[in-house]
Amino acid sequence: MRKPPGKYAWTATVGEKGQIVIPKQARELFDIHPGDTLLLLGDEQMGIAIPPKKAMEMLGRHIFGEEQPNE
Question: pLDDT tens digits, residue range 40-53?
């Protein structure tokens, strides 16, 4: 089965303290660095999602009614 362009799948092991290690390839692809804060979204039926870091900024702008910057 061929991987669709732009789609990825990784696995992570949960440690005793509930921590997971994000695979190096994923950290590099999504520009994740030590000390970064990530947003985790959960749905009891669909599972857990970790959206891109920009999603937290966009959510904050939406909550506070600020306009989105031109991209």
Answer: 889 999 999 998 87
3-state SS class at 12:
coil
Instruction: Give residue-wise pLDDT tens across range 9-34.
Output: 899 999 999 999 999 999 999 999 99
Q: Which helix (H) or strand (E) holds 27?
A: helix 24-29
Q: Pick the closest to residue 40 from 60, 64, 56 (CA basis).
A: 56
Predicted TM-score (pTM) of the model is 0.68
* Residues facing residue 43 across a β-bridge: 47
Amino acid identity, position 28: E
Is the Cα torsion angle 12, 22, 19, 9 positive or negative in sign? negative
- In angstroms, the CA 13 to CA 19 distance is 8
* H-helix or E-strand spanning residue 59: helix 54-63
